[in-house]
């Protein structure tokens, strides 16, 4: 017998489930192979540890009963709608809060402003008068600047005015 055959039958050998012929062949192999002996020792230790625990056999109809209970649990669980409703309620509450903040913020800002009256705005006549006076002032300033500039360059102003 080779190592693979012994390893396949080692558990049955330990529990005494093999025929005498197979037991003798495995026994002969174990007397010459150290690796298989170590594996047999490990299996025997594991078997002793497992023998300390007492396992109860499951009833024959365990699978069908478990399946029935699982289908009942699936039917009785609430749909995901409750989570969806919570999300919708949270979004609606957030929107309402944001509208409230904007509303009160707008009114607070408005209360700090001074009221605007129509009399505060200038009439059209006053606007045109200021524009005329500006243009006159601007032209006077331009002329003064040109005169001073030309004087600094020693140019004749009369020649320029003729041209």
What can be said about this structure in brief?
The protein is an all-alpha fold and 163 residues long. 78% of the residues lie in helices and 0% in strands.
Task: Outline the biggest β-sheet.
Answer: none
Kindly report how far apart the N and C termini lie. Answer: 131 Å
Instruction: Provide the β-strand percentage band.
Output: under 5%
Shape field: elongated
Kindly give the count of domains.
3
Oligomeric description of these chains: single chain
State the helix count: 7
Mean pLDDT: 78
Number of β-strand runs: 0
Supply Rg.
53 Å
Q: State the secondary-structure class.
A: mainly alpha
Helix content: over 70%
Low-confidence stretches: none
Secondary-structure element order, as H and E?
A: HHHHHHH
Describe this structure in words.
This protein is mostly helical and 163 residues long. It has three domains: 3-52, no CATH class; 63-112; 125-154. It is built from seven helices and no strands. The chain has helices at 3-14, 20-32, 34-52, 62-76, 81-112, 124-153, 157-162. Helix 1 (3-14) crosses helix 2 (20-32) and helix 1 runs parallel beside helix 3. The longest helix has 32 residues, at 81-112. The radius of gyration is 53 Å and the shape is elongated. The model has no long low-confidence stretch (mean pLDDT 78).
